[in-house]
Model the fold of this input.
Amino acid sequence: MTFDEILAQVLDLLQREKRLSYRALKVRFGLDDEHLAALKDEIIEAKQLAVDDRGVVLVWTGDGDPAPPATASTPARASFATMPAYLAEKIRTTRDTLAGERKQVTILFADIKDSTELIRGLDPEVAQRLLDPALQHMMDAVHRFEGTVNQVLGDGIMALFGAPIAHEDHAARACYAALAMQAAMRAYTEEVRRAYGLEMRIRVGLNSGEVVVRAIGNDLHMDYSAVGETTHLAARMEQLATPGSSRLTAATLRLVEGLVQVTALGPVPVKGLVEPVEVFELTGASAVRRRLQAAAARGLTPFVGRQQELEAVYQHRS
Done:
């Protein structure tokens, strides 16, 4: 079979079954690593009909509803139902003017590390009670800094800052959201540890780049096309992050220098890219004074009316 014939069969199979493991695809179609990588790039990046789940499973999203894993409850539309009213209204009032626009954004991926192993053997209702609050902490942190949760990916989320709500300081907001969700999860992790003896921690990945907004649905879900490696690198940063940590690319760091604290991890090989990528671990936010000075110098949009809340986040150290 030609590559196009394999692609058509995989898409048909994926649409029917919703979730396919990469190992099964290799066995079914006799794919080597190079052909599997090309297939993933075409389905995930080019056609945007599926997402990657933990580097193991391909999850169909072409019909607008990501399929949930068998081990967890996944309220795929919860992000829109629980979105603060003022954010929803901002999107509704501008959505008709956004179609076709290119936007500079920061994309955030967050997931619960090893969630399948974590909840293996638990009653499904118990597993749901454990996972849902973690997802809610992630979404709350995104909404707190006016980002949009665009997909709920089983045990994690994908969020955008800078579209559909435009913010010049989208990268800073994404970093602060990452810090806020890690802080919230530390408290929740301790609660789960005491009650169940389990270690539930999340990993976060960030990258900045361009996307083209195609449409925004009535449920506020945004259909978009990533430009270049925007989404791919954000997902890779998440996959490279250790439990309880957040990692970002140099593209994001350039937009937040002076606003956050990072540890340089050096160049890291990233599957699918020829050259290694400079990776940084997000360790905290700069002091308020330094942040305000940097913001004034860069002309970044302020976070209006949230000084006390923001100070607590800026003072955070992981």
